[in-house]
Design brief:
single chain, about 180 residues, mainly alpha, GMP Synthetase, Chain A, domain 3, 2 domains, 3-stranded mixed beta sheet, 8 helices, 3 strands, about 10% strand
Length: about 180
């Protein structure tokens, strides 16, 4: 009698619980579910893309190494996102978006981007913590973004401006242009 994917996953998880730190197991492996077998690979879902990629890179090989011990034959482990169970969507912020979703997001943000009149250089308070950024942004503000060819030259000019006004500041920063 062959075992189902959830039964196989339960055996692998039992072994992982004994081997891994409890917090690691609870954070990364406990929220997973086996959904099927494809050849010699068990398909396991994770609640979000970050968890799926993390488990795939950190735990899949380890879990596959348990298969010959607990099952008597090799088995690989593949993690996928369970779209119906997204319990931690905030973790997807740590994963680079796919090219098509990134372009859609940029288009959506461009539609809703409304700059406040309060946030202008005239109202900007320059202090010790942001004077390098302010010096770099002022030239960029006067030049159309499409014509800014080299950000390094803008930063170089800002550093020179700050260096001319206060040489001690330039020495405190570890900036190399």
């Amino acid at each position: 009698m062959s075992l189902s994917a959830p039964e196989i996953w339960s055996l692998l998880l039992s072994r992982a619980r004994a081997e891994l730190p409890e917090q690691t197991f609870r954070t990364w492996l406990e929220p997973t579910q086996a959904i099927g077998l494809e050849g010699d690979t068990i398909i396991v879902t994770a609640p979000d893309r970050f968890a799926a990629e993390w488990n795939d890179s950190k735990h899949a090989t380890l879990l596959a190494s348990y298969a010959p011990i607990v099952l008597g034959h090799p088995l690989s482990v593949a993690f996928r996102v369970d779209e119906e169970r997204r319990t931690r969507p905030q973790m997807d912020f740590f994963v680079a978006p796919t090219p098509e979703s990134k372009s859609l997001r940029v288009a959506r943000e461009a539609e809703v981007l409304r700059l406040s009149e309060r946030y202008t250089f005239g109202n900007f308070v320059i202090g010790k913590s942001n004077e390098l950024a302010a010096a770099a942004a002022k030239p960029a503000n006067s030049i159309r973004a499409a014509h800014v060819a080299d950000l390094a030259s803008l930063l170089g000019r800002a550093i020179v401006e700050l260096g001319d006004s206060d040489p001690a500041l330039l020495g405190q920063r570890n900036c190399h242009v």
